[in-house]
């Protein structure tokens, strides 16, 4: 295979992966608490042989998340919560604790606070939050403190990751390095944080990636034609 084709194929593969990231961002532009994703590509050198020049190749090296604040949408629901500024809520999932900014919570049949997938919301002490069945009015303060009928019953856990985050799903993050309570957190009751994806920017990026892919494909087609013509001319000799 021509050395020109190797890096071109690597570039095309990278553009396809970038397109998948952009498409996922657009699909989640209305998802509560979603954070925009960015593909990070790395370059490395490949040596085809001792007598040949090395080839520069590229590939997907990882992901970076845009963790900036999304707009707040006020719903008025007493169990809808949003973090203003830094910090994450903590959920107990079958895979272990996960961090999220999606605060669309509700009560389970056992009167515990859960998310839309049935995962328990953890309090500042690391235990699931239970709301008394006779609680008529729930008030959640800016520091996450939960009061029922004027009595303090628990506090919503808001934490900061110690180290890098890993996306576990669209709105869940794992914290391999652990996490710690964030005492300066600001919780807003009756509101949800919207996705921080900018659809306009993502569509512009999608067009840019598509054009780059088409240009790369055209180059591969020309190189294929060149090789075919060379093989034909050699056969006719």
Describe this structure in words.
This protein is an alpha+beta fold. It folds into 2 domains: 5-67 and 197-235, no CATH class; 72-193, no CATH class. The protein has helices spanning 5-27, 199-235; strands at 36-46, 55-66, 72-74, 81-84, 88-93, 96-100, 106-107, 113-114, 120-121, 138-140, 145-148, 151-155, 158-161, 166-167, 172-174, 179-181, 186-189, 191-193. The strands form 6 sheets. Strands 5, 6, 9, 13, 14, 15 and 16 form a 7-stranded antiparallel β-sheet that branches. A 3-stranded antiparallel β-sheet has the order 10-11-12, with no helix packed on it. Strand 11 (145-148) and strand 12 (151-155) form a beta hairpin. 25% of the residues are buried. The mean pLDDT is 86.
Write a concise keyword list for the protein shown above.
three-stranded antiparallel beta sheet; 237 residues; 18 strands; seven-stranded antiparallel beta sheet; alpha+beta; elongated
Distance N terminus to C terminus? 22 Å
- Structure summary, number of beta strands: 18
Pairing-aware structural class of the strands and helices?
Answer: alpha+beta
Shape designation = elongated
pLDDT averaged over residues: 86
| Structural domain tally | 2
The SSE order reads HEEEEEEEEEEEEEEEEEEH
Layout of secondary structure:
Elements: H1 5-27, E1 36-46, E2 55-66, E3 72-74, E4 81-84, E5 88-93, E6 96-100, E7 106-107, E8 113-114, E9 120-121, E10 138-140, E11 145-148, E12 151-155, E13 158-161, E14 166-167, E15 172-174, E16 179-181, E17 186-189, E18 191-193, H2 199-235
């Amino acid at each position: 295979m021509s050395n020109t084709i190797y890096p071109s194929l690597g570039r095309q593969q990278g553009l396809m992966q970038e397109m998948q990231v952009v498409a996922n961002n657009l699909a989640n532009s209305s998802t509560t608490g979603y954070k925009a994703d960015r593909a990070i590509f790395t370059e490395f050198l490949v040596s085809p042989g001792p007598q040949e020049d090395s080839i520069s190749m590229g590939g997907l090296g990882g992901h970076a998340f845009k963790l900036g604040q999304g707009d707040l949408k006020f719903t008025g629901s007493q169990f809808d919560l949003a973090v203003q500024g830094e910090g994450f809520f903590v959920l107990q999932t079958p895979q272990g604790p996960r961090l999220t900014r999606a605060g669309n919570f509700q009560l389970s049949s056992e009167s515990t606070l859960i998310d839309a997938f049935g995962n328990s919301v953890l309090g500042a002490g690391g235990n699931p939050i239970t709301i008394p069945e006779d609680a008529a009015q729930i008030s959640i303060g800016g520091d996450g403190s939960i009061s029922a009928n004027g009595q303090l019953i628990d506090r919503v856990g808001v934490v900061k990751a110690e180290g890098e985050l890993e996306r576990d799903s669209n709105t869940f993050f794992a914290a391999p390095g652990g996490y710690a309570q964030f005492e300066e957190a600001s919780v807003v009751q009756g509101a949800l944080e919207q996705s921080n994806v900018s659809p306009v920017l993502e569509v512009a990026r999608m067009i840019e990636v598509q054009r780059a892919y088409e240009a790369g494909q055209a180059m591969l087609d020309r190189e294929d034609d060149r090789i075919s013509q060379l093989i034909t001319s050699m056969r006719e000799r």
